[in-house]
Write a structure and sequence with these properties.
The chain is mostly helical. The protein has one domain. The protein is built from six helices and two strands, in the order αββααααα. A two-stranded antiparallel sheet has the order 1-2. The radius of gyration is 23 Å and the shape is rod-shaped. The chain starts with a helix and ends with a helix.
Length: 123
């Protein structure tokens, strides 16, 4: 017995007027950290075709989770390296709190810019 057109195409369909439309669903979205959210926003705004392809294939969440983990690791590593290079210590934190806060904010901002440029907004 020969399969109908819809059975050959796979999936399920519903009829609206004279048309049969596929029943498309978007996979459940997992909880993604701040870096993954930034990557999602970048893809949604600047790489729409890639975003939609990954979204409908179910690969978007795993990509965002991987990017989030890589970004967290990279950010932590940069902050540690820059802190050591610039000689920022716990003694500075205890003695000159405002200077320590300013210098750490500066380091965190620079590390964030590097991660954004190299990972989040990368093609």
């Amino acid at each position: 017995m020969e399969k109908s057109f819809f059975e050959q195409m796979g999936g399920t369909y519903h009829q609206e007027g004279d048309y049969f439309l596929p029943n498309l669903t978007v996979p459940e979205s997992a909880s993604i950290g701040i870096w993954g959210q930034r990557r999602r926003q970048y893809l949604r705004e600047h790489r729409k075709a890639l975003y939609n392809a990954w979204l409908f294939s179910g690969k978007l969440d795993s990509h965002l989770a991987e990017i989030n983990q890589q970004a967290e690791d990279m950010f932590s590593q940069f902050v540690k390296q820059m802190t050591a290079q610039e000689g920022i210590t716990e003694q500075l934190k205890a003695g000159e709190q405002m200077e320590w806060i300013g210098r750490m904010n500066n380091i965190r901002n620079r590390a964030m810019e590097i991660v954004n440029a190299e990972l989040i907004f990368a093609q």
